[in-house]
Write a structure and sequence with these properties.
- The structure is a single chain.
- The protein is of the alpha/beta class.
- The chain has 5 domains: about 170 residues, 3-Layer(aba) Sandwich (Rossmann fold), CATH 3.40.50; about 80 residues, D-Maltodextrin-Binding Protein, domain 2; about 100 residues, no CATH class; about 70 residues, Periplasmic binding protein-like II (D-Maltodextrin-Binding Protein, domain 2, 3-Layer(aba) Sandwich); about 90 residues, no CATH class.
- About 50% of the residues lie in helices and about 15% in strands.
- The protein is built from 28 helices and 17 strands.
- Strands 2-1-3-4-5-6-7-8 form an 8-stranded mixed beta sheet.
- The longest helix has 30 residues.
- The protein starts with a helix and ends with a helix.
- GO terms for molecular function: ligand-gated monoatomic ion channel activity.
């Protein structure tokens, strides 16, 4: 009985309230509800019947509505469903029934206390996620979701006035595809299903950027009141001339800072600037470029990201890379792909060794070496019919080496008695003639090819792998800001980790390129954006320059020849040092002789002049020494007695008998003669060649002088 009385009282009060509202609207404008004020139907239901606004709906109407919306508009992506604490506690049964009937793949969870749901959903760029939110107050959307291009469906328990207030706010403009579902405030006297009203907004209705709430349709009786597209295309007529503030940062080729104009405004150019200009013409908006304030400390990209997160700008450009941590800063739209690349110094000149060896392949050089050595043996054997003279006399090998080398220089003017120009055998002449024709052809091929190899530029070899950088011992440079300093910290590749283990950080790209061009002892490679490095390398940080194919030879082109010359100088210097010390063979002989003498028991050194045949020089020294002795008359009488019996060569006999007579007469001072002879002979003869060419005259004069004395 009490239950029926309460129902009757509830209906009576509802009827009276509607009548009072009708009278009030005739004389006064209805004020907006307060922030936490509930709809009237919810208040009366909760006060008299102790049930919430869904109690008159047996959970089927709203579930059918959400199922229809999801099937028609949300099937292209997965769905993330979130609910606040109020809905979780008051409408637990509704949520359970809704999750059982929802037709799409989804995830669900409660809204955290800080009202941020971005951390609960994968926000990577390749993930498409639509949202369904069950909240008590529609104004809480500005704390739950931020800038989103995905579709957002909000089921709220706010009044229609509250919904219109939110749709007119600035925050609702950040969610382009927004649909709000609320239950109608209209109270039905009979037991009927309360309809649900579907709202959205119209963006940028004027140049000030205002938004206008729009009622799309209503849901009642498992049908829409009128056919309407719930997620219609927005901004069909553009932004109505609205002015957007754009944060720009110098990042060629995407954004290029040109300088200031007459109005002291910074002018920009680049790929992204031109894209914005095209979009401004298509969607009817104006632009105002502002340079980010923290570029010097954070770098170009990080400064733009910070400005976006602070909400001070509408758009940001500057060659930004879409990363996982940046995806939460706002709505990103990629227009091109870029990658990290290394840039190093390369030359179009031939390498040092290829400048000389380039015209021929290594197989040709190997064949030439074999022919060269074979020619030495063939020429020697054809002339002597044996190779023993090469083994017994190593100097002949050297002579044959230069004789064969002369054929490659077309030199046939050797006049030595053993040269092939004076060969007597026809076999040798035939071999030399055929070999001469071969050398003419091969030298002509080499001469013609080396001109093309040296003068024509060579495309430098491209480094394609990290292993090549490691093998070349490159020092790696990288920017110390903009994300480059921490993007490569967690690398799984062992070679890349080793290469980037020690990095030279630079403040800007210009400093990195300067290190690349100025590297001398170690090769330097700079890691950066491929598009930016390509632009800088092609433009020379200034203007484009046409490269002519006709060019003068540089030191890089001819360094192979100088390298060969330096090798010859080093080899000649080594031979010169060896000759200064008497040659390696003679030096070893002297060391061996000295060691034998030191181990011998002989205390008086013997004079080799008395044990072997003397040379002409030794005879001259002995003769000159006799001219300075005090007993010249006595010696001459002994010499004259022994000259005639010898007969054939009186001058030679004179020298020999002179030494023998001196031996018999002054045997007690024999040890001192060796040193004195050397001293007197070196002082008397300043030019040894004069003695050798005037030998007979020199001896005759000495004989006459001795006779006169």
């Amino acid at each position: 009985m009490l239950h029926y009385m309460l129902i009757f009282l509830f209906l009576t009060i509802s009827t009276l309230s509607q009548y009072c509202d009708g009278l009030y609207t005739k004389f006064a404008k209805r004020a907006l509800q307060k922030f936490h004020e509930k709809p009237r139907i919810q208040k009366l239901s909760g006060f008299f019947l102790n049930q919430d606004s869904y109690s008159d709906d047996p959970d089927t109407s709203l579930i059918d509505l959400l199922t229809a919306v999801a099937s028609n508009y949300l099937s292209d992506c997965s769905t993330a469903i979130f609910y606040d604490n109020y809905t979780e506690t008051q409408d637990r049964g509704f949520l359970t029934n809704f999750f059982q009937h929802y037709p799409l793949a989804h995830v669900h969870g409660s809204i955290p206390e800080d009202h941020h749901i971005e951390d609960s959903v994968d926000q990577s760029a390749d993930k498409c996620v639509h949202y369904i939110l069950f909240i008590k107050d529609v104004m809480r959307c500005q704390d739950i979701v931020s800038r989103r291009s995905e579709k957002v469906v909000v089921v709220a328990k706010s009044s229609q006035w509250r919904v219109q207030e939110y749709l007119s706010s600035e925050h609702s403009q950040e969610i382009a595809n927004l649909l709000i579902i609320v239950k109608s405030d209209k109270f039905l006297q009979k037991k009927k299903e309360t309809p649900y009203i579907l709202y959205t907004h119209k963006l940028f209705v004027d140049a000030l950027g205002s938004s206008q709430p729009v009622v799309l349709t209503s849901w009642s009786g498992a049908n829409f009141s009128r056919n309407a597209i719930l997620f219609n295309t927005k901004l069909k007529h553009g932004f109505a001339g609205h002015r957007f503030i754009i944060a720009a940062a110098h990042q060629p080729p995407y954004v290029i800072k040109l300088g200031r104009n007459k109005r002291d405004e910074i002018e920009y150019d680049g790929v992204e600037v031109k894209l914005v200009e095209i979009l401004s013409q298509m969607y009817n908006f104006s632009t105002d470029y502002k340079e980010s304030a923290d570029i010097k400390t954070l770098g170009p990209s990080e400064a733009v990201i910070k400005a976006l997160q602070d909400g001070n700008i509408n758009l940001g450009i500057g060659g930004l890379y879409i990363t996982e941590d940046r995806y939460t800063a706002g709505i990103f739209h990629w227009h091109s792909e870029d990658c990290a690349a290394f840039i190093s110094l390369a030359s179009t000149a031939l390498p040092r060794y290829r400048a000389i060896m380039g015209p021929f392949n290594w197989t040709v050089w190997l064949a030439l070496i074999m022919v060269y050595l074979g020619a030495i043996l063939l020429f020697s054997y054809s002339d002597k019919s044996t190779l023993k003279h090469l083994i017994k006399n190593p100097e002949e090998i050297e002579n044959m080496f230069w004789y064969v080398f002369g054929t490659f220089t077309n030199c046939f003017t050797f006049s030595d008695k053993k040269s092939w120009t004076k060969a007597e055998k026809n076999t040798t002449k035939l071999l030399v003639g055929i070999y001469w024709i071969f050398t003419i052809i091969i030298t002509a091929c080499y001469t013609g090819s080396i001109i093309a190899f040296v003068t024509l530029p060579v495309f430098p070899a491209v480094i394609d792998t990290v292993e090549q950088l490691l093998g070349g011992r490159y020092e790696i440079g990288m920017l110390d800001r903009g994300g480059w300093n921490h993007w490569f910290r967690n690398i799984s590749d062992e070679a890349s980790r080793k290469l980037l283990g020690k990095v030279d950080y630079v403040p800007d790209v210009e400093s990195g390129l300067k290190n690349v061009t100025k590297a001398f002892f170690w090769s330097y490679a700079f890691l950066g954006s491929k598009e930016e490095l390509t632009y800088v390398a092609n433009s020379k940080i200034g203007g484009f320059k046409s490269v002519s194919e006709d060019r003068a030879l540089t030191l890089d082109d001819t360094q192979g020849m100088f390298l060969l010359l330096a090798f010859g100088y080093v080899a000649g210097g080594a031979v010169l040092i060896s000759e200064i010390f008497g040659g390696c063979l003679n030096l070893c002989k002297k060391l061996k002789t000295n060691s034998r003498r030191s181990s011998s028991n002989v205390t008086i050194s013997s004079n080799p002049r008395f044990h072997e045949r003397q040379t002409n020089r030794e005879r001259h020294r002995s003769v000159s020494f006799t001219q300075q002795q005090p007993s010249q008359d006595r010696s001459f009488s002994l010499f004259s007695d022994e000259i005639e019996p010898l007969g054939q060569n009186p001058e030679e006999a004179f020298g020999e008998n002179l030494i023998h007579s001196m031996k018999s007469m002054r045997s007690e001072s024999l040890v001192d003669y060796n040193g004195k002879i050397d001293e007197i002979f070196d002082d008397a003869l300043e030019n040894e060649d004069c003695i050798s060419t005037e030998g007979s005259e020199f001896k005759e004069k000495n004989i006459h002088k001795t006779t006169e004395n």
